[in-house]
Every structure is written in C-alpha cells, then in structure tokens.
Design the sequence.
C-alpha cells in the first residue's frame, strides 16, 4: 500500500465509529475475587488496539468479559457496561455475540485437536447462514492468508506445530466473517520469527478485510509496533493509555515494559523508588 | 473338543448378545464424545424408555406409542440439560459423573412410580420360535433367535447412520468440536446447550432401541437398568470415544464370554460368563488405556 493510501486509512480510522466500548466494568470470580476493578476502553472500527500488561493484570479476563466466556469459569461482570456497535451485549450468549461479528481467539490457541485443520476452519463458520459457496470462498481466503494451513489441511490439528495452531485458530475465527476479533496472547510459546509473521498477517487482515482487532499481548514492544492505540493494565485497572507511538516514547513504559532505560543498571533500592514514582498510580 | 456346529451356534449367539451390549454402550459413547460426561444414567434411560413404550402401547397403537416415547426421551434430555448440566457447566468431570448417578436413581424410581414396577411383556411381533440355519451342513442346524437378528440389523443401521451424522454433517462436526474443547467451541459460536440437548436426545433414542431389544428378550423390568453394567467392559474394550469401537467391543465381549464358558468353563467349574468381560476389560486397560479404537491421546512434547 502506498504512503498516501496508508495515511488515508489512518485518517478514516480516526473518524471511524466505535466498534466496541467497555465502560468501567468490574469482574468477580466465584462471587468473591475481584479481578477487574473498573476497566474502560474503546476500540474504533477498523483499528488495531493493544491491551498490555504483565501476567495476571487482567487482560484475558477483560477479553473473556467482552466475549462472554467468563461464565464457564465462574466469573461474572458485576458492574459497568459493554457495548458492541452501540448495542448492550453483556447479557448475550457467546453464540449470539459471534452472530453479531465479535469472535475471540483464545489464549493457547485451543484448536480442536481431533479435527483436521480444515474441519477446524469449517467449525468457525458454524453460525453462518449464507450458504456453502460463500463459506467455501472464505475457506480459500483463509488459505490465501495462511498457505501453510492449506498444506496441512488434512492433518489433525493436534499434530500441527504451535505456529500452525495459532494460524488455525485465527483462520477459524475469520471463518465467522467477524467485524471484531479479540486476539488473546498470539505470541505465546512461539518463535519470534513466527510471531512477527502472524502479526504481519493481522496487519493485512486489518487493512484488506477490514477486521478490527483488540489484541491482548505481553510482548509490549511487538504489540506497540503493530497497534494504533494501547491500554496498559495493572492489577485489574487501566493505568495508562494512548496512541501507540506515544506509549512507545513514554519513559515509564520504556522502563517497565520495554526493558529500556537511559541510565544503565540500577540497584534494587532504586527500582523500588522508581515504582513509587510511577505517575499513573 | 466340541463339534463345529454347536461351537458356531454358541459363537453366533454370543455375537448377537454382543450387539445388544453394544447398543447400550453406544449411548454412553455418544454422550461422552460430545460432552465429556460419563453418563451413568444410560442404563436407567434404557429402562425408562422401555417402560414408557410398553405402558403407552397398552392403550395406544404401537407406532404412536413409539413416537410418543421418543418425545418423552427428548423431554428427559431437555430436563437433564436444563436442571443438571447447565448449572454444572465448567465443573470437574467427576462432579458431572456424580450428577449422572443422581439422575440414574431418579429415573429408576420415577419411572417405576409412574409406569409401575411389574414385569411387562414387550411384543414386537417378531416370531419367538428360533430359526435353524444350514441344516444340511450340520446335524440339527444352527439355532438363531429372530429377535437377536432383528436387534443386530437395527444396531448396524444405527451405527451407520450415526457415523455419517458425526463425520459429514455440520452439526456432527460441531458435536466433535464440543467433545474436544468446550470453551473453544463456545468461542466460535457453537451453542453448548443446544448441542447437549441434541446429544442427550440421540442417546435417549438409542436407549429406546436398546430397551426394545432387551425388553423383548428379558421382559421390561427393573433389571434392564443393570445392562448398563455389562456395557462398561464393552466401553473399555472399544474405547469411550469410538462408535465403531462400541460395536466391535460388544461383539468381542459377547462372543468372548460365551466361548470362555464353553472352553474354560468346564475346567474351573463354570460361571465364567458373568465375570469374563470384566477381566478382559482389565487386561485391555493395562495394555491400551484408550481402548482398541479410542481416540489417540494427543500429547505434544
């Protein structure tokens, strides 16, 4: 894509309607454990938004709260609201949400191990009613983005490599013709080169198929290179948010998430004082 | 050494009763495949279906009673889904198993409360007198019971239909997906509740067929629910997740226990038939825990 075209896309996304809005939600597990303590975020249509933070910060819980997969883990949204294209969705079942175009790719891939790769992709089209030909066309589209899946289409997904499984999981989500994909930790357990490849495909899907992405990722550096906007979660709260470039240049993000600092190694004492200095606490 | 004719007759009889075991095992496999629940209540469902059919057919024409029983079994499936599975979603497998034990006792008791606890005769209109095959080859021929042949034919077509259903339809694919990973299935928009309703209904209908076959052989009575115990070694042998496995397992158990009785029985005093299957199952467990046809346990290292 040429530079002016890219700029045009960016401009369009700046004025784009809001695909997803999460308003001050609280999530409680088992009726007692408060995991999210008021998270708010917004995902504009056709954008890529990153949800960053360390282990246990609440990234996965946020995504599952949106896609309504919390119930099976005894989690519950107790406060706040979630709207998808203006519609209140937090009472909908996952099935109804997929029908509306919001699909989650879970952390750790979760391919159907005893189904072949192609069968995995076809289950993604479960909610569709637009006929065999359209589904077949989308299967070709997915194979176009992930040629490796075409080679492995007859293998059981359980026997494919981690990278292939991640591709399979993303491809399966694409088969639902989603408007928004919630992508949870796509880099987990994959070689850096593969991760780069997957993020590039995410970029292309975003530009060419107009899919909006909300990506939860621990690899802050990588995510901020591909996302347009980022939210940083800590202990179930959004502690910082901003356009990706701004976050990349932020001294505290550099210090705590990118592992960069201007002044060399520090003693443990100094690191503690740094933490107190964090301006978002 | 026994003569060939009688041996063949024993073998054939064993295979036929094996098919009946397989019919019960089939219900277990269906539910286990799609929901990961080991449904101990399958035997109770067999009894409940057979009781409903036999009592309804007392004052309704048979085809009508048959259809109504199917409706009842779907209602049972719906109730189990709504009242037992849905509140327990995401719980450990053992807890779900315990819940199905509860369902077993409820169905046993409730069934006999509303339908009565006598022994009822189920007449499917199949001639009771045995057929004699190959009379010109063996002296006296080989004795075969028409009911067994009927049951074998039904079981065969049921398995064929289910295999096609599981492997070439969209719903079948969704069922296998749910069996693999509940949460992932939900995440792609497969509604678990509907899937469970479909599976339990199918298992209910399989239970009805099994109940008809067993009921016409033994009479419809409480002991029908105990045939579930005979299905356990079949399941272990065939693998909990394989439909063809249930059939092959049934045949092996059926033929094996009859032949063991014939050959080993006289040596140690008989009565082998009652425990042979369990010993066989134990041996299989030691060598091949997933059973002969069970899904490979995929473990990436």
Sequence:
């Amino acid at each position: 894509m040429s530079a002016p075209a890219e700029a045009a896309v960016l401009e369009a996304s700046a004025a784009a309607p809001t695909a997803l809005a999460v308003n001050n939600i609280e999530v409680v597990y088992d009726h007692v454990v408060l995991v999210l303590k008021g998270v708010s975020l917004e995902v504009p249509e056709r954008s890529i938004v990153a949800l960053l933070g360390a282990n246990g910060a609440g990234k996965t819980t946020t995504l599952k709260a949106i896609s309504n997969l919390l119930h099976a883990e005894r989690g519950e949204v107790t406060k706040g609201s979630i709207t998808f294209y203006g519609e209140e969705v937090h009472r909908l079942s996952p099935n109804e949400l997929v029908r509306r175009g919001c699909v989650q790719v879970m952390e750790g891939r979760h391919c159907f191990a005893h189904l072949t790769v192609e069968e995995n992709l076809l289950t993604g089209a479960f909610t569709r009613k637009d006929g065999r030909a359209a589904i077949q066309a989308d299967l070709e589209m997915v194979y176009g983005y992930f040629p490796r899946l075409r080679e492995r289409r007859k293998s059981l997904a359980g026997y494919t490599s981690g990278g292939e499984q991640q591709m399979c999981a993303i491809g399966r989500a694409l088969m639902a013709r989603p408007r928004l994909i919630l992508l949870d930790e796509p880099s987990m357990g994959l070689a850096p080169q593969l991760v780069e490849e997957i993020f590039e495909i995410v970029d292309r899907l975003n530009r060419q198929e107009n899919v909006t992405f909300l990506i939860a990722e621990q690899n802050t550096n990588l995510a901020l290179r591909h996302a347009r906007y980022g939210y940083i979660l800590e202990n179930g709260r959004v502690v910082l948010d901003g356009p990706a470039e701004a976050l990349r240049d932020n001294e505290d993000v550099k210090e705590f998430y990118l592992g960069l600092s201007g002044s060399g190694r520090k003693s443990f004492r100094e690191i503690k004082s740094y933490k107190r200095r964090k301006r978002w606490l | 050494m026994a003569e060939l004719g009688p041996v063949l007759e024993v073998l054939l009889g064993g295979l036929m009763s094996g098919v009946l075991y397989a019919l019960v095992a089939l219900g277990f496999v269906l539910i286990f495949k799609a929901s990961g629940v080991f449904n101990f209540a399958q035997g109770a469902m067999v009894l409940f279906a057979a009781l409903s059919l036999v009592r309804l057919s007392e004052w309704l024409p048979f085809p009508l009673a048959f259809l109504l029983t199917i409706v009842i079994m779907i209602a049972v499936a719906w109730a189990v889904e709504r009242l037992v599975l849905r509140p327990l979603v995401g719980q450990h497998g053992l807890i779900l198993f315990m819940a199905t034990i509860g369902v077993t006792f409820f169905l046993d008791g409730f069934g006999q409360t509303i339908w009565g606890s006598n022994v009822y005769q189920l007449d499917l209109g199949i001639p009771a007198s045995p057929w004699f095959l190959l009379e010109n080859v063996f002296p006296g021929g080989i004795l075969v019971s028409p009911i067994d042949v009927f049951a074998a034919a039904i079981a065969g077509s049921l398995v064929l239909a289910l295999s096609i259903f599981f492997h070439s339809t969209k719903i079948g694919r969704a069922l296998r997906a749910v069996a693999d990973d509940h949460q992932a299935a939900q995440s792609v928009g497969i509604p678990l509740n509907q899937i469970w309703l479909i599976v339990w209904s199918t298992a209910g209908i399989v239970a009805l067929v099994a109940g008809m076959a067993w009921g016409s052989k033994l009479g419809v009575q409480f002991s029908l629910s105990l045939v579930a115990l005979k299905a356990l070694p079949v399941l272990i042998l065939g693998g909990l997740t394989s439909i063809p496995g249930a059939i092959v397992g049934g045949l092996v158990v059926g033929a094996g226990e009859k032949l063991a009785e014939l050959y080993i029985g006289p040596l140690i005093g008989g009565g082998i038939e009652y425990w042979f299957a369990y010993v066989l199952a134990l041996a299989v467990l030691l060598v091949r825990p997933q059973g002969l046809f069970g899904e490979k346990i995929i473990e990436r290292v």
Q: What stands out?
A: Chain B is about 70% helix and 0% strand. The radius of gyration of chain B is 20 Å. Chain B touches chain A at residues 89-90, 170, 173-174, 176-177, 179-191, 295, 298, 300 (CB under 8 Å).
